Amino acid sequence: MLARRGRDGEDVATDDVRWGLLMARAQDGDKAAYRELLLEVTPYLHAMARRALAANEVEDAVQDILLSLHVIRHTYDPARPFKPWLATIAQRRLVDHLRRSARRLAREKPLADEAALAPAEAATQDDRALAVRAVRDAVATLPMRQKEALLLLRFRELSLDDAARASGRSAGSLKVALHRALATLRRAMLRV
């Protein structure tokens, strides 16, 4: 078989055949062949990732590709070329990585200077005060049994047995009351 040179200057046909043989041996349980395959494909994967991603993201992306390769290695058909199979896996993982990065960047906001943070902190404190007031008002509207279960189990953080002894009620009764109290509070907070 004649070998041709790839974009990175490597011997494409030789790599493809060699890597395919190593993967076939790895599928048969040859750990040394699998280790050798991973060592040989890693520079190729690094080159692919460097073309698609920022330098600080390359290593994570390569590890993600190698993990995917490990998980789906049983799907490789030794009768087919290895390199296109690997490249497809790598490209899909790189696209996934780019999508995750884009979502993360869309959620994150750059820090502003300190002058701009001061009003935000004040607004946050006002929001907290309003939220605390809303929770207090919602707890005040609860029936006494639910309020007692909430106080003992959530605010005092007593165990169910200790709360049952302290209230003179059964553990089951306390659990039901707490569940109802939390559901009522959730509904009240959604209206705020």
From TrEMBL:
InterPro entries named among the record's database cross-references: RNA_pol_sigma-70-like, RNA_pol_sigma-70_dom, RNA_pol_sigma70_r2, RNA_pol_sigma70_r4_t2, RNA_pol_sigma_r2, RNA_pol_sigma_r3/r4-like, WH-like_DNA-bd_sf
Superkingdom in the source lineage: Bacteria
A UniProt-annotated Pfam family: Sigma70_r2
Presence of the UniProt keyword Transcription regulation in the record: yes
Domain RNA polymerase sigma-70 region: 42-104
Keyword annotations: DNA-binding, Sigma factor, Transcription, Transcription regulation
SUPFAM superfamilies in the record: Sigma2 domain of RNA polymerase sigma factors, Sigma3 and sigma4 domains of RNA polymerase sigma factors
RNA polymerase sigma factor 70 region 4 type domain mapped to chain residues: 134-185
NCBIfam families listed in its UniProt record: sigma70-ECF (TIGR02937)
Database matches in PANTHER family: ECF RNA POLYMERASE SIGMA FACTOR SIGD, RNA POLYMERASE ECF-TYPE SIGMA FACTO
Family: Belongs to the sigma-70 factor family. ECF subfamily.
Name of the featured protein: Sigma-70 family RNA polymerase sigma factor
Annotated source species: Benzoatithermus flavus
